């Protein structure tokens, strides 16, 4: 029997465990692992995606939230002059990275500092989806309607 490694499914999805969507997302060919990234859980409802994109400037990056996807795109600008490299070890190539987001995950901020793109996410659960306690008996129990007994027959008034 084969065992399945689910880590590729979980590393680019934030805030939900819908296995059907995750399996579909994982079967698509993403190409390379460039640029490298981390997904951190900062608190109960806070997350951060941190991408290492050395060599890019802020105007070469684009973040788009579309439906339940966060799309991060980097377009390398053309070098203005002739540059001769003896060794080119900093990979600055165009990329597009997609992250699947749950319905309750919202992108709150994006900062770019020291070659790291930080994208702040927060989980905002609507009031109707939050758990609520249901009381048994007590106040929520239906009350008898005055003037009728249990069988729906009008009660006789005692004189």
Q: How does this model look, in words?
A:
The model has no long low-confidence stretch (mean pLDDT 78). The chain has a four-stranded mixed sheet, with no helix packed on it. Strands 2-3-8-7 form a four-stranded antiparallel sheet, with no helix packed on it. Helices cover 8% and strands 31% of the residues. The chain is elongated. It has a single domain, classed as Immunoglobulin-like. The protein is mainly beta. It has two helices and eight strands, in the order αβαβββββββ. Strand 4 and strand 5 form a beta hairpin. The protein starts with 6 loop residues before the first helix and ends in a 36-residue tail after the last strand. Belongs to the small heat shock protein (HSP20) family.
Keywords:
Immunoglobulin-like, single chain, elongated, 159 residues, mainly beta, 2 helices, Hsp20 family protein
CATH 2nd-level architecture: Sandwich
Instruction: Give the overall average pLDDT.
Output: 78
> What structural category do the secondary elements indicate?
mainly beta
The whole-angstrom Rg is 28 Å
Which CATH class applies here?
Mainly Beta
CATH domain topology: Immunoglobulin-like
How do the SSEs run, as a string of H and E? Answer: HEHEEEEEEE
Number of separate helices: 2
Regions with little confidence, pLDDT below 50 for 5+ residues = none
How many E-type strands?
Answer: 8
Helix content: under 10%
Strand order of the largest sheet: 1-6-5-4
The total number of structural domains is 1
Q: Distance between termini?
A: 82 Å
User: What's the overall geometry?
Assistant: elongated
The largest β sheet comes out as: 4 strands, mixed
Beta-strand portion reads: 25-35%
Region (Disordered): 133-159
InterPro entries: A-crystallin/Hsp20_dom (IPR002068), ACD_IbpA/B (IPR037913)
Protein name: Hsp20 family protein
Biased composition (Basic and acidic residues): 136-151
